[in-house]
User: What shape does this take?
Amino acid sequence: MDPLRPEAAGAPSTGGAPVAPDLSELLKLSARGDQAAFAELYDAMATRVYGLAVRVVRDPAQAEEVTQEAFLEIWRMASRYDVERGSATAWMLTIVHRKAVDRVRSAEAATRRDTTYHSQNQAVDHDSTADAAHASLEARRVRAALHSLTAVQREALELAYFGGYTHTEVATMLDLPVGTAKTRIRDGLIRLRDTMGVGA
Amino acid sequence: MSSDIHALSGAYAVDALDDIERAQFERHLAECDTCRSEVDSLLEASGVLAEAVFLAPPAALRDRVLAGIETVRPLPPVVTNVVSLDTVRRKRRFPALVAAAAVVTLIGAGVAVTQPWQDETTQITLSAADRVLQAPDAETWTKSPVTGGTIKVTRSRSLNQAVVEAKGLATLPDGKTYALWLQHDGVMIPAGLLSGEGTLPVVLEGDPGSAEATAVSIEPASGSLHPTTFPIATFEFEQV
Assistant: This one.
């Protein structure tokens, strides 16, 4: 149990253990083929993984597939997690996000783009991310960090992270010169990182 | 192609690069400690965004996942060879980076030379092109596309690398670029972009040693997964 990693707590579980499981330890056990440890990992991460998948791919059935693929990948790749380089949560969410984005960019995505571009372009709900945050101490920190972003940083970040759009697409959608979106995305992440005190 | 590959770190951390940029950036990551540590920290930050979205999946999904892992063997850890410092440096956490580390390919010289802070990369990149051009088994092909100029391809089978140099190519309108391809089993695979009009040598990405041909076509500046125009030049390699 690493007290420095409160974000490893996962979703509040119903009647679960009083302490959050040590996710990096569970990953290590999973790498050795410990299925019980992986089940515990699933229980700690499922709501976050599925929540992210739904947010990006939108269609619940596809989000389930992405969630399943991502967990299988986490199981397969568990030995490659390096605690020196970051939190177990971030490592897992990176895998999930990549799977989700790959899904929306596959051929099927063209249809989705065509039908949703307009509404995306018209109104990015600046508060949607923060409002969805669950009510906990950690969530309040997240909310504060998200509010530390400028409106244009958050707009670009949300289109990229939740919309699954490339920085070039984000630039076009926001009528920005090519190159500006990637800068906003990077600046926004740096601000999030520094506000949350995460990362190296 | 970006003129400042370092600035792609944030977009990489939120998967906002297209496939070609992603491949280029991952090759760059294999060479650039600064970018690697920045990306690690930005991935932590992107995880914060996901803190905001919780949704319970259907209970049946848990059973499917746990049944699924029974049929999947966890990969072994990356074993560090103590003899090679280089290997230690290349140890990767993220799956895609494992692949990037395995392919010691270098980004085109055109990207690196404008970045003083990438001195190390610049030197390695230039020498990579030079190594191919000066390889004992270097083979050379030259063509003059009807659109003007000449394109020279030099391949070293022993290095499994090839370099493309161009002179006097037509200036393309904004939003267009010269894209490079390698053909394997009859399929053209992206092998990078010529920077500007290709006056700087570019090391092809991929496996020129086993490719059947290389080609150059005019594509949107963001790149394409497949040639969308007929190549202006195609070079057939001799097969072993």
In short: The first helix of chain A runs from residue 23 to 31.
